[in-house]
Design goal:
- The structure holds two protein chains of two kinds.
- By secondary structure, chain A is mainly beta.
- Chain A has no helices and eleven strands.
- In chain A, strands 2, 4, 5, 6, 9, 10 and 11 form a seven-stranded mixed sheet that branches. Chain A has a four-stranded antiparallel sheet with strand order 1-3-8-7, with no helix packed on it.
- Chain A is globular, with a radius of gyration of 13 Å.
- Chain A starts with a strand and ends with a strand.
- By secondary structure, chain B is mainly β.
- In chain B, about 0% of the residues lie in helices and about 55% in strands.
- Chain B is globular, with a radius of gyration of 13 Å.
- The chains are: A mainly beta, B mainly beta.
- The interface between A and B is medium-sized, with 28 and 25 residues.
């Protein structure tokens, strides 16, 4: 158990809909990272938050957004969903200083039909 | 993100054999991490490397941070059936510490 929690475990929704994925980092970790894992693209970095502020953006679509709340949990919002958004979504957390290791949650499997 | 080339793509070995996989980057990394992922689960951190030339072990696993800082390898000795899974290399060059991942090495171990 990495100490990172994600809900829900599975999500099935229709094209055009909007969903919210939730992540709680390990106790004391200030950084949260979101990654998308698909069969063709592998694990891709989406976005990072540190102590409530956006720090880095990767290959995140404009239809996707995220935020980190004062209690440090984070939410990833996916809107106008398309079939190609079906994937595993992971969040990972890291402490404020070294070591710079990221610990992953169990993931949310999103299926868009 | 930066491209990581991980090889081999898959390995099918017998229990007791040693395994070696490696990862190369087109640019310099400051940290190399190796993860294992079981189907439907999140990646689990196996080994972290922070210095060029560093050699680190975790049980039967040994990993090294290449001298050029553009490569890393992972060895598994005396493989057992529970080593089955997908192994990923990952690294970053400090830009927010977001990880770049290899495509993974799928390991199958037969008893």
């Amino acid at each position: 158990d990495s100490g990172v929690t994600q809900t829900p475990k599975h999500l099935i929704t229709a094209t055009g809909q909007r969903v919210t994925l939730r992540c709680s980092p390990r106790s004391g970790d200030l950084s949260v990272y979101w990654y998308q894992q698909s069969l063709d693209q592998g694990l891709q970095f989406l976005i990072q938050y540190y102590n409530g502020e956006e720090r880095a953006k990767g290959n995140i679509l404009e239809r996707f957004s995220a935020q980190q709340f004062p209690d440090l949990h984070s939410e990833l919002n996916l809107s106008s969903l398309e079939l190609g958004d079906s994937a595993l979504y992971f969040c990972a957390s890291r402490g404020g200083g070294p070591p710079y290791e990221q610990y992953f949650g169990p993931g949310t499997r999103l299926t868009v039909t | 993100g930066q491209q990581l080339n991980q090889s081999p793509q898959s390995m099918f070995i017998q229990e007791g054999e040693d395994v070696s996989m490696n990862c190369t980057s087109s640019s310099i990394f400051n940290t190399w991490l190796w993860y294992k992922q079981d189907p439907g689960e999140g990646p689990v951190l196996l080994i972290a490397l922070y210095k060029a030339g560093e050699l680190t072990s975790n049980g039967r696993l040994t990993a090294q941070f290449g001298i050029t800082r553009k490569d890393s390898f992972l060895n598994i000795s005396a493989s057992i059936p529970s080593d089955v899974g997908i192994y990923f290399c990952a690294g970053h060059s400090n830009s927010g510490y977001a990880l770049n991942f290899g495509k993974g090495t799928s390991l199958l171990v037969t008893p």
